From TrEMBL, chain A:
Residues 199-238 are annotated as: Disordered. Signal peptide: none annotated. Pfam families: Med8 (PF10232). Component of the Mediator complex, a coactivator involved in the regulated transcription of nearly all RNA polymerase II-dependent genes. Mediator functions as a bridge to convey information from gene-specific regulatory proteins to the basal RNA polymerase II transcription machinery. Mediator is recruited to promoters by direct interactions with regulatory proteins and serves as a scaffold for the assembly of a functional preinitiation complex with RNA polymerase II and the general transcription factors. Component of the Mediator complex. It is found in: Nucleus. GO terms for molecular function: RNA polymerase II cis-regulatory region sequence-specific DNA binding; transcription coregulator activity. It comes from Cloeon dipterum. This is Mediator of RNA polymerase II transcription subunit 8. One of its GO terms (biological process) is regulation of transcription by RNA polymerase II.
TrEMBL record, chain B:
Pfam families: Med20. Signal peptide: none annotated. It is found in: Nucleus. This is Mediator of RNA polymerase II transcription subunit 20. The lineage of its organism: Eukaryota, Metazoa, Ecdysozoa, Arthropoda, Hexapoda. GO terms for molecular function: transcription coactivator activity. Keywords: Activator, Nucleus, Transcription, Transcription regulation. Component of the Mediator complex, a coactivator involved in the regulated transcription of nearly all RNA polymerase II-dependent genes. Mediator functions as a bridge to convey information from gene-specific regulatory proteins to the basal RNA polymerase II transcription machinery. Mediator is recruited to promoters by direct interactions with regulatory proteins and serves as a scaffold for the assembly of a functional preinitiation complex with RNA polymerase II and the general transcription factors. Belongs to the Mediator complex subunit 20 family. One of its GO terms (biological process) is regulation of transcription by RNA polymerase II.
From TrEMBL, chain C:
Belongs to the Mediator complex subunit 18 family. This is Mediator of RNA polymerase II transcription subunit 18. PANTHER family: MEDIATOR OF RNA POLYMERASE II TRANSCRIPTION SUBUNIT 18, MEDIATOR OF RNA POLYMERASE II TRANSCRIPTION, SUBUNIT 18. GO terms for biological process: regulation of transcription by RNA polymerase II; termination of RNA polymerase II transcription. Its main location: nucleus. GO terms for cellular component: core mediator complex; mediator complex. It comes from Cloeon dipterum. One of its GO terms (molecular function) is transcription coregulator activity. InterPro entries: Mediator_Med18. It is found in: Nucleus. Component of the Mediator complex, a coactivator involved in the regulated transcription of nearly all RNA polymerase II-dependent genes. Mediator functions as a bridge to convey information from gene-specific regulatory proteins to the basal RNA polymerase II transcription machinery. Mediator is recruited to promoters by direct interactions with regulatory proteins and serves as a scaffold for the assembly of a functional preinitiation complex with RNA polymerase II and the general transcription factors.
Length: 255, 211, 228
């Protein structure tokens, strides 16, 4: 018995956390729709949907897990109703529900439709049963015609929209055509990552010795140590880097 | 994995290898040991060709049936300073050595193997096996593991007493040289230590063979 | 007594058997692309929607990769070996990886294919390779996100140079990383035993779903060498 209770607690906890995730996602989406409707684009909106749908799937997975107790077999019994303000309840529901009173409870703990709605449903079902077969067929055909028409309209709009989207491709570039080969070359053969330069040519940091500093790399300089002398090699160093990298590149085995 | 000690058991003059193994099995059986499967430790040695420049480097690749998913590689580098670099890797490392066969060639004739039977007796695991080099008999090795302890210094006396009970005077009164040379008496014992001991023994068998 | 008769196979025998029955994942199918820093959030969002690991938080990684090579006799192609270690999880096994030459193949082949051997190793691997005669060609650090979709792995990461001048410091230079570009590299890959080409088509389909955000393509490595 205790084990079952523990399991139930665990499942409920998991369900609550998933529902909270879902709530945050939906909240974020509503926020986007309300506040960013001017900049929000369709793919972005669909991505939001995909996220929510993924979360729904994972929620269903938990609920349909065989370890999960069948929640519908549990009864919720309101023990006490009162019209006063219940701070605890308000906190738990994040302010959506402040009292646990007679006019609210039937709505929140409802498992069947409202009596009015139930009556209306019955009337409609009765009406549907009275229609003859031919009339029903006719109505279905008419409905299909209307739906088909709308379908055509949507398709046409889509074609137009797609051709329009195709014509203005590249308007919002999300990737750089030059960066891909650059990055791939870097991680596959070290392009731009190899340290072929002597430490003296590094920017910053003091030169290793007072005389044979960075100047050793470049062409002969004036008297070393002076400020102009230091400026010189700084300017020269990049060219040394370039040629060195090129040489290394040519040595490389890929052909 | 507890502290493990590996000993070479000299084959008496008037006996063959299998006879010696049978004798040891009989003795450990008399102590109440129960047989529990087989074991195998093998060692293949690769060395670098002349293209690498400098003195040749040697890689010993060992497998131990006690750690079936692992490959142990010990690289002997001429240095300077000369040193041995160990590497523990998963099973695909063997594939990599195959890929490097043009750089590191296997010396097939020096492939060594210790193969035999495993016994359990209380907290001890005893393995008695014969050593072969490219299927020529080389000697008899006895491996004794005391499973509850990880520090060799703490259980050497106990292990010595147990080993002497069935191996006799072959067991010295001081810990084996491996533990003293590498100063491993007070460190946590690792599977690699067993491998090192096997390699040391294999190397001395090879030396006897003049290879 | 049946136990006594049963002999132990050598590791090499088992490996040969595994190779014969083709169960060792020694091939990598992959596609590559990149995305600008400014758009990476959109991509991550979409990947979260598409991939399996939506339940958990974004899976991040920060790795240090070193690329070694060792030359064979007679100027044959050097062997490339890579070592990867995690910078956010100390003490985890390191990864040693052999990667062969990428094969582009003809147009009908949906992805690039290369041989690959992935080996988990102890942390002595760098010293081991160095003493083995390998030379460290270059290194970098990769920081980003990882997603899974079935057998597919999708990584979105930035490539950083490692600052040589700060290498001697306790942080190893990993605290002041300079990115190589303003883009994240996006890789879609599957490790599989050879001959499982069907997975490559699945990858192509998946890549389609990331368009036009990212263009995952077969990058021609031969062209990279002679490119700008």
């Amino acid at each position: 018995m205790q084990r079952e209770e523990k399991q139930q607690d665990a499942v409920l906890e998991a369900v609550i956390s998933r529902v909270n995730d879902l709530k945050t996602s939906i909240g974020a989406m509503i926020f986007k729709v309300e506040n960013e409707y001017e900049t929000l684009n369709w793919p972005n909106f669909l991505d939001n949907f995909a996220l929510i749908s993924g979360q729904l799937t994972s929620l269903t997975k938990i609920l349909s897990n065989e370890k999960a107790p069948a929640l519908r077999n549990f009864t919720v019994l309101p023990l006490m109703l009162k019209p006063d303000l219940d701070e605890n309840l308000a906190r738990v529901t994040e302010g959506r529900l402040t009292t646990f009173s007679h006019d609210i409870v039937p709505d929140y703990l409802r498992t069947k439709p409202e009596p009015d709605a139930e009556l209306k449903m019955m009337q409609l079902e009765h009406k549907a049963n009275c229609v003859t077969y031919e009339t029903a067929q006719k109505q279905v055909a008419a409905m299909n015609k209307v739906v088909g028409h709308v379908w055509d309209l949507v398709n046409k709009a889509r074609e137009e929209w797609e051709s329009e989207a195709g014509s203005r491709s590249g308007a919002a570039q999300t990737f750089s055509l030059t960066d891909t080969p650059l990055l791939v070359a870097a991680i596959s053969m070290g392009k731009g990552l190899k340290h072929t330069v002597a430490p003296g040519a590094m920017m910053g940091g003091p030169p290793p010795g007072p005389q044979r500093g960075p100047g050793a790399l470049g062409p002969p300089q004036g008297p070393p140590g002076g400020i102009p002398g230091q400026m010189g090699p700084m300017g020269k160093a990049p060219s040394a880097i370039k040629t060195n990298i090129k040489a290394a590149g040519q040595m490389h085995p890929y052909r | 994995m507890g502290v493990t000690i590996l000993l070479s058991y000299p084959v008496p003059e008037n006996k063959t290898g299998p006879q010696t193994v049978d004798l040891l099995i009989k003795r450990i059986g008399a102590l109440g040991a129960v047989q529990s499967g087989q074991f195998l430790v093998d060692c293949e040695t690769f060395s670098s060709g002349p293209t690498m420049g400098g003195p040749p480097r040697t890689v010993h690749v060992l497998h131990n049936s006690e750690q079936p998913a692992a490959v142990f590689a010990l690289l002997e580098s001429p240095g300077p300073p000369p040193k041995t670099v160990p590497l523990v890797a998963d099973g695909l490392f063997d594939l990599l050595m195959l890929k490097m066969s043009s750089i590191y060639a296997s010396k097939k004739q020096t492939r060594m193997e210790a193969r035999g039977t495993r016994f359990e007796i209380a907290d001890f695991l005893v393995k008695i096996g014969t050593v072969t080099m490219s299927s020529n008999f080389k000697g008899v090795l006895v491996e004794v593991e005391y499973r509850p302890c990880f520090i060799a210094g703490n259980c050497w006396e106990l292990m010595r007493e147990f080993m002497q009970s069935f191996l006799g005077s072959v067991v010295q009164n001081t810990p084996p040289p491996y533990f003293q040379v590498h100063n491993r008496l007070n460190d946590v014992y690792q599977p690699l230590d067993t491998i090192q001991q096997y390699l040391d023994h294999f190397a001395s068998y090879r030396k006897v063979a003049g290879l | 007594m049946a136990m006594a008769q049963q002999t132990v196979n050598t590791a090499i025998d088992s490996l040969t058997a595994a190779l014969k029955s083709n169960i060792i994942p020694n091939q990598e199918y992959f596609l590559q692309g990149s995305i600008l820093d400014s758009s990476v959030e959109v991509l991550l969002h979409r990947l979260r929607g598409l991939c399996d690991n939506v339940d958990t938080n974004l899976e991040t990684f920060h790795d240090h990769e070193m690329c070694f090579s060792i030359r064979g006799p007679n100027n044959t192609q050097p062997l490339q070996l890579r070592v990867r270690r995690s910078l956010d999880h100390n003490g985890m096994p390191m990864q040693l990886r052999y990667i062969g030459q990428p094969e582009i193949g003809d147009k009908s082949r949906p992805t690039v294919l290369r041989n690959s051997i992935d080996i988990g190793t102890s942390n002595t691997v760098v010293e081991f390779l160095t003493e083995l005669g390998c030379r460290k060609d270059f290194e970098y650090s990769a920081k980003g996100y990882m997603f899974r979709k079935g057998r597919m792995k999708i990584t979105v990461f930035k490539v950083f140079k490692i600052d040589e001048t700060r290498k001697m410091m306790s942080s190893g230079g990993f605290d002041a990383l300079s990115p190589l570009t303003h883009s994240y590299l996006v890789e879609l890959s599957v490790l599989a035993p050879s001959g499982q080409d069907a997975i490559a088509d699945d990858m192509r389909c998946f890549a389609e779903q990331l368009r036009p955000l990212v263009q995952l393509e077969k990058i021609d490595y031969k062209r990279l060498v002679h490119g700008p």
